[in-house]
Every structure is written in structure tokens, then in C-alpha cells.
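Researcher: First entry.
Model:
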Amino acid sequence: MIGYFLAEGSYLKYKGEKTAVEFNFSLSKEKDTLGREVIGLLRKVFDGRNEPRIQERPNRDILMIRLYGRDVAQWFYKYCGEYSHEKELYKDCLYWHPNIQKHILATWINGDGTCRNIYHRNGKLYQNITSTTCSETLHYQMKFIASRLSIYSTTDYVGDRATKRGKKPYWTLVFGSKESQS
């Protein structure tokens, strides 16, 4: 769930105070499955709380999931930070059990990642899994977790090209290169 929040989460505020968390997924079968997973995780972690609210916005192609509660918002703030360019894992997360870290990395990739097909000059199709963030700190933390899990990754940094277009710089982690089986 932490990985999904790092990728797709934000806060709702009332008078400047964090009062709820919100996850936004594009409407698609794949993202609908991720949305259901997030709902299940919210129910499990925050058992006994109010029920997560789900809202589809087809006009904006978005599935929104909200869970209200200042304590819920503070929990996510502690473990994930705030704002896309400032999100980061709480330092203790870097030393959690590898199985927990694997879940954090996988859910972050599920939220902000994609699979790229690349044709090599030898004519073979290769696939890379990538995930992108505007947070330099989060980038290095995810790279560290991947290395702890023996997952090879490289970095593609887009700085000047992004800022020239009025966008924030971003870091893309590229995980492995696998020859396609098809």
C-alpha cells in the first residue's frame, strides 16, 4: 500500500490540515484491479475505520479511492511524505524485511511503472520494466531497495529536457532487460 501511495497518492486537506488520503488511477481493467487491491489493503491496515470511498470519473478517466481520517493521513505522511517531488520513504523502511520491501517496490512499479518493448539491432524483442518519479530521494531509495533484492536497475534522468518544457525533472528506474518469449 505504501508503494501505491508513493505512485498514486495524495492528501485531502481542510484548512491546511491533512484529513484524508486519496489514490487516483486511470480507468482501465488493469487499474481497476489495482484499485480493488488498494481498497483491500486499506480495509486490512485500517480495520475498524470508515469504509474507503470509491468514485469513478469517466469524464476524466479516473478511479478515485479515498479514506478519511487525520490519523490515516498522518500514517501515510510519516511513511511516504508529501508532494510528487518530495515524496520519500521513512528511513526505517529501508531496513525492513526484504519481503515487505519487495511489496513496496512492486506496488510502486504497478502504480508508476510500465513495460517497454525494445527491438535490439539483432532483431530480437526485449522488454524493460520502468518506473518514474519526480523525487530524487525516492528514486535513490527505490534503487537501494532493488539492489537489496538483487534486482538490477539503471537510471534515466531527464532534467534539462523537462525543465525546458516547463515540467519537473524526473528519474526513471529501468529494471533489467529480458528477451521476449513471444
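Researcher: Second entry.
Model:
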Amino acid sequence: MRLPPPLKTLAVALPFGIAAFGCIYGKLTIPLPGTQSISDPRELFVTVGSAITGPLGALLIGFLAGVYDPVPAAIPATIAMHIAGGLWMGLSYSAAYRKIKGWPLILAWMLLILVYYSAFLIPILVMVPLIIPNLFTTFYESATPVAAFQLMYRNSVPEIVFTSLTTAVVMALLPPRYRAPIW
């Protein structure tokens, strides 16, 4: 029995969303060797899952990735950044997949990850706390918004590199039929 496309999308997206939720709820982190940074591996599930399942899957995955945060006041920002970033990955990967074949697609993937962080996750993580009373100072103490952007971009470089390399390997190793968008 074949599932209708929206149900298939949700059935594939749900495990990615649960895995992303499990990473943050279970406090799973990966220390990045040679740096003082740690990575939150939920981005691996958000980016790959959203790319494969498209906008509908990205909504579910992004919500589940952000619905819990150790700082409860940050949940609106966390949901917003993962849904926006997931939508980006779903839409942009689908376009790239149709136009680019072979190893250049993996390089394009890495560029999509860079945009995922630099245009969605980091700006939303800085801007949403500006509109939630006291949240900005909880995250950034006495920093100005410009200083908060600079701090986030600088501190995110190791995680961006880790996520882009790790997910690029995953996408390269997946058989073509499993890395194709299903929507």
C-alpha cells in the first residue's frame, strides 16, 4: 500500500524530527576537536530531513527540533530558526538536486549549509531575543545587537564546518534514491 504524498512526507519527516528533539532533550553534544566548541547534532537531522522531505517535512522537523530548549524562554526563537532554516533546506536542496548532478551537488550542499546558519539560524537567534523581554540579556549579557551577531558568527564557525562536512558525507553515501527529495 502506497501512502499519499503528504502522509509519506510526514512519515519520513517524523523520525528526523524525533531524532532532532532527542538530541537537545537528551543534552547530546559533540566536542569539536581542536576547538573549545561543541556541536548540537540536531542540525544534522534538521538539514538532511528537511532537504529530503521539503517544506511540509521542514515544518514538522523544525517544530520538533525547537519545541524544547534548556532555556524555556528561548523556545520561540529556537522553533522559528529551525523552521525557517528547514524551509530553506527543503526548497533550496530541491532546486539544486534538479539542476546539479554528481559531486558538484555535494559542494552545493555545503554552500546550502553555510546559508542555513548564516542567513537563518544565527540572525533569528539574535533577532528574536530582541523582542522577548530579558531574553537578549540572558543570552548576550551587555552586548549590543551588532556585538551579538559578531559573537555568534565567530563562535559558530566550528559547528558550521562540522555540520557541513558531516552532512555532506551522509548525503554522498546515501544511494541516489534516498537522497532525492520526496515531495
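Model: Note on the second entry: The beta strands are 30-31, 38-39.
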